[in-house]
Amino acid sequence: MAVKIRLKKLGRTHRPFFRVCAMDARSPRDGRVIEELGTYDPMVPQVDARAILNGERIAHWVSVGAQPTPKVGTLIKKYGKDGTHLEAQAEAITKLSERRQKSIESAKKAAAAVEMPKPEAPAPEAPAEGEAAAEGEAKAEATEGTEATPVAEAAKEEAPAENAAENAAEAKEEKKEEAAE
Questions:
Q1: Which structural domain range is residue 83 located in?
Q2: Tens-digit pLDDT profile for the chain (181 aa)?
């Protein structure tokens, strides 16, 4: 089996990302891999921080006869085990990590500066069942024999009913009265 060290494309449209992999030469570009040996992200702003390779494993695969593709060969020369750009890569990675750390800190400060809405005050407690019934009867006696005024209707709505069946029955009676008039 002929082994190639090549790029496996991941990511999405207009945002490529590659893995450097040891693969069977007959397998498709994004197919099954034998071993993943590093990554290459062409969208990273620091040029020397784009490729992160496992130099020891790449050296092993090359020693047993694996052939790198031209692009991967260039990456190995620059960022492999004895690469020419290793110092620049270390500096670029340091700069990139500092930049990311600063952006994280600024995001935390911005989040802390945003004032969260305060929870609303809790609703006033409803009167006990006995008190509610007494209030409802007193209001009903006061409005007996007179036309329902908006104030009286509002008082009815404010008084809590004991159950939904009573509310439905009252609504039906009101509709019948309105229809009769």
A1: 3-101
A2: 789 999 999 999 999 999 999 999 898 888 888 999 999 999 988 888 889 999 899 999 999 999 999 999 999 999 888 888 888 889 999 998 998 899 999 888 888 888 777 777 776 665 555 555 555 555 555 555 555 555 555 555 555 545 555 666 677 777 777 777 6
47 within some domain: yes
* Total-model pTM: 0.56
Q: At what angle do helices 129-143 and 150-158 cross, to 10 degrees?
A: 170
Same-domain check for residues 81 and 15: yes
User: Around Cβ 8, how many Cβ atoms within 10 Å?
Assistant: 20
Residue 53 belongs to a domain with what CATH number? 3.30.1320.10
Residues 71 and 151 in one domain: no
Does residue 86 sit within a domain? yes
* 171 domain residue, yes or no: yes
SS3 11: strand
State the DSSP string of 14-73: TEEEEEEEEEETTS-TTS--SEEEEEE-TT-SSGGGSEEE-HHHHHHHHHTT-EE-HHHH
Specify whether the CB–CB gap between 41 and 20 falls below 8 A.
no
Same domain, 93 and 134: no
